[in-house]
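User: Look at the shape:
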Amino acid sequence: MPIEPEANANLDDRLFVARRAFKILSESIPLMRHYFTGLSEELLLRCVKQLNRTPITSNTVHLMGMGRSRLVAYIFADILLDMNLSSSVIGSTFAKPVRHGDVVIGISGSGETRSTVDNIRATTFREVIIFGITSRPRSQLARFSDYSIVFDWAAGERIQTNYIVNQLTGQRSSLTPMGTLFELSALLFAIGVTKALHDPKDPLPIFLKVLDYLEKSMEKISEGLKKGGYLFENAVAFLEVLEKDLKYDNQVLWLGTELSEYVATMSAMRAQHAGIRVRPRSSWRFKKEYDHFLLITFDT
């Protein structure tokens, strides 16, 4: 159950919410480890094998999703590209055509997102290998997929069948940090699978190391948010700025570099849902006094 502060909550309350959010996320990692370990090793091997064969057969890995799932698709595609695998995000400006023998990966928590399901259905006539990543094993996405990666522990959110309509009408899912447990699970699966490509014969140990890294990071962040911790003062300053942005209706540009751009966009979507005036990069030339520029990057 996501914890959401009142709009007029003070800094201590908001910091408590931030600490609690990271605590919930940290406590979710053992559960995710349990389920990831329980994933069929045969399914994992199949996925790794199919991805590894694409450069040999000159095929492409196509990814599809909407909303935050689309951002996961972009991250997945970029990591594959960095590993010299041909990848493409369906619906993007420079999307590649789907051809015989390609691998298609659809990402949808509900498994019912209309545009994702329609596109996946269209690819079935191209004789491709389809992997569906979802939280609902009986969804349309799962039915159209040759192989389903099901995160049924992340199935608690309301089903969204039409992302665009929900966006236009202002319908939002619960304000969990950085998206839902499903998006985090899908992202970790993407990172774990691409790591496992280095050892296709025994991918599971490498796959599970991703959770080790995440667990250590969450522990460091939780410690850092404690009073006197290395993140505490910065967190206080950040929350003070956001409170002023809410009060005075300032705009904030959330930007990132390389893969961090998708992380920035995902967190910006959450900020927008909370009432922050998030604006695209192009709006910086129209900035006014007291508007802010927030950059997320791996480099300092």
Notes: The chain has two domains: 39-201, 249-296. Confidence is low (pLDDT under 50) at residues 1-8, 163-178. The first strand starts at residue 61 and ends at 64.
